[in-house]
């Protein structure tokens, strides 16, 4: 009896698929010696991206904007639609991560996939990634400081939240996160495992409490309720802006890519980590989003509150229960900031290893005791603090500095995917690949990145004032201008993209572990 056709196809696919190389052999083939400890298992790699995406932090930070731009209809159905688009981006990135499992991640793969001007492609991708990650760490920890002050004000009504206090609390958070990242990667892995369960259990607690405790909920049809309070007349434009709520949340899944050199079986576990983080975040985030939407009582009053989701908790559950749930939210934000800093540290380490940063020898050194890039950790802590300092005088100034976070990250995501498309059949996939669907998925990913980045740079409120103006284009322009001047002034003569430290046997002799 002949074998079924699908079994024949599966066997042929297994025979033609590239074999997963030994982790160290893969790294040596890319021209790098092993300096970091491989302590991240598959779950740990997933945990870093899942923690950075952080549905609790993302949804609670941006829910208020969604109430203004589109309301429940965009919050719910926009979440579903954008999650699907992000899956395309994650799949395309995962295929590249499998081919180039290195801490350099996006900038390294951009340099390898470019047909010409490899140094320039790698340079711009690396700096966009760096600035985006620094902005993400700053924004997340600043949000955590804001929510900490909201908790203090709920506990002690006489307390008056102050921008200077927010900056001070953010500085303390950054210090603690830097200390945690200074110790072994095993500690970071343990903390990230805890963060996953904190997020999942915390989400369940919030959802169950919002479902069981209130004596009334909105009707099922409320998910289709549409609101446009952006100030713009076009409902379509207002609804499109609301998609940014989900886009803002789904950033940082390149963390799995950056942790490749510390992940066991990175050629498969890094891309799987990216995809699992996106899928789990999409499903759990939708549940949390629905719970908040159906718990709304006074739409206008809650939408105009300083922290709309917190006001929803207070109105639906009472002050005491809301305070307890707010502790879950604050914990999630702190875990998110820690994971952000970990990912940023590895990008700094790799970028410096290839000589692309001032003081590169300093930043890519690794502690002989902890096997972590300690100096890069402290740079990853100081840079966000510099971005946060303008918040001491003006929240608008702070918003202007960190607004490049999402734009910078998604542009950095898009460059290697675009170059992979342009390379065509010249791209050599790793063990985890999309087969013949690779190119179509990459096209959708690039298209979505272009659309979402345009949305992030458009005006988001009307009338335009100093406080309502969207500073993302200015911030992005400043970053690109500095990178361009720097490139033509000196960098192009000394940076040609990812370097190779020698043949595989030569770099194997340089291993420090």
Structure notes:
It is a multi-pass membrane protein. This is Amino acid permease. It holds the Pfam family AA_permease_2. It comes from Streptomyces blastmyceticus. By secondary structure, the protein is mainly α. It has helices at residues 5-16, 23-29, 42-53, 55-68, 71-99, 105-113, 118-155, 163-182, 185-212, 235-242, 244-249, 255-258, 266-295, 299-303, 308-317, 319-353, 360-363, 374-388, 395-402, 404-423, 438-457, 472-494, 504-508; strands at 69-70, 227-228. α5 crosses α20, α5 (71-99) packs across α21 and α16 (319-353) packs across α18 (374-388). The radius of gyration is 23 Å and the shape is globular. The relative contact order is 0.21.
Layout of secondary structure:
Blueprint: H1 5-16, H2 23-29, H3 42-53, H4 55-68, E1 69-70, H5 71-99, H6 105-113, H7 118-155, H8 163-182, H9 185-212, E2 227-228, H10 235-242, H11 244-249, H12 255-258, H13 266-295, H14 299-303, H15 308-317, H16 319-353, H17 360-363, H18 374-388, H19 395-402, H20 404-423, H21 438-457, H22 472-494, H23 504-508
């Amino acid at each position: 009896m002949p074998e079924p056709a699908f079994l024949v196809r599966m066997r042929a696919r297994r025979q033609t698929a590239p074999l997963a190389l030994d982790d160290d052999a893969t790294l040596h083939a890319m021209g790098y010696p092993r300096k970091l400890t491989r302590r991240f298992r598959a779950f740990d790699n997933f945990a870093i991206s899942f923690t950075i995406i952080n549905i609790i932090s993302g949804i609670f930070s941006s829910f208020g904007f969604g109430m203004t731009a589109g309301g429940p209809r965009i919050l719910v159905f926009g979440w579903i639609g954008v999650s699907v688009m992000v899956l395309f981006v994650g799949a395309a990135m995962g295929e590249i991560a499998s081919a180039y499992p290195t801490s350099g991640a996006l900038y390294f793969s951009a340099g390898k996939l470019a047909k010409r001007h490899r140094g320039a492609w790698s340079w711009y991708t690396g700096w966009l990634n760096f600035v985006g990650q620094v902005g993400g760490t700053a924004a997340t920890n600043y949000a955590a400081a804001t929510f900490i002050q909201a908790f203090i004000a709920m506990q002690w009504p006489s307390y008056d939240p102050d921008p200077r206090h927010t900056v001070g609390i953010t500085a303390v958070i950054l210090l603690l996160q830097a200390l945690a990242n200074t110790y072994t990667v095993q500690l970071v892995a343990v903390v990230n495992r805890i963060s996953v369960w904190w997020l999942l259990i915390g989400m369940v607690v919030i959802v169950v409490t919002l479902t069981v405790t209130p004596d009334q909920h909105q009707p099922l049809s409320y998910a289709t309720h549409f609101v446009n309070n952006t100030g713009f007349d076009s409902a379509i434009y207002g609804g499109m802006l609301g998609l940014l709520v989900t886009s803002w949340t789904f950033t940082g899944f390149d963390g799995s890519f950056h942790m490749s050199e510390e992940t066991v079986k990175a050629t498969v576990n890094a891309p799987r980590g990216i995809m699992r983080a996106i899928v789990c975040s999409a499903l759990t985030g939708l549940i949390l989003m629905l719970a908040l939407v159906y718990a709304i009582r006074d739409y206008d009053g809650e939408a105009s509150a300083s922290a709309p989701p917190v006001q929803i908790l207070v109105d639906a559950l009472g002050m005491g229960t809301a305070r307890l749930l707010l502790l879950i939210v604050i914990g999630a934000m702190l875990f998110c900031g820690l994971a952000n800093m970990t990912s940023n540290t590895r990008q700094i380490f790799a970028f410096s290893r290839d000589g692309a940063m001032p003081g590169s020898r300093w930043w890519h050194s690794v502690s002989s005791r902890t096997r972590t890039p300690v100096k890069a950790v402290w740079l990853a802590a100081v840079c966000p603090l510099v971005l946060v300092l303008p918040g001491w005088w003006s929240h608008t100034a702070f918003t202007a500095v960190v607004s490049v976070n999402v734009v910078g990250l998604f542009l950095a995501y898009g460059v290697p995917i675009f170059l992979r498309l342009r390379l065509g059949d010249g791209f050599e996939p790793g063990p985890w690949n999309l087969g013949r669907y690779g190119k179509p998925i990459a096209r959708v990913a690039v298209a979505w990145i272009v659309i979402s980045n345009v949305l992030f740079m458009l005006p988001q409120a009307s009338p335009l004032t100093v406080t309502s103006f969207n500073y993302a284009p200015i911030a992005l322009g400043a970053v690109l201008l500095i990178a361009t001047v720097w490139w033509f002034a000196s960098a192009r003569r000394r940076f040609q993209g990812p370097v190779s430290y020698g043949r595989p046997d030569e770099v194997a002799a340089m291993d420090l572990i």
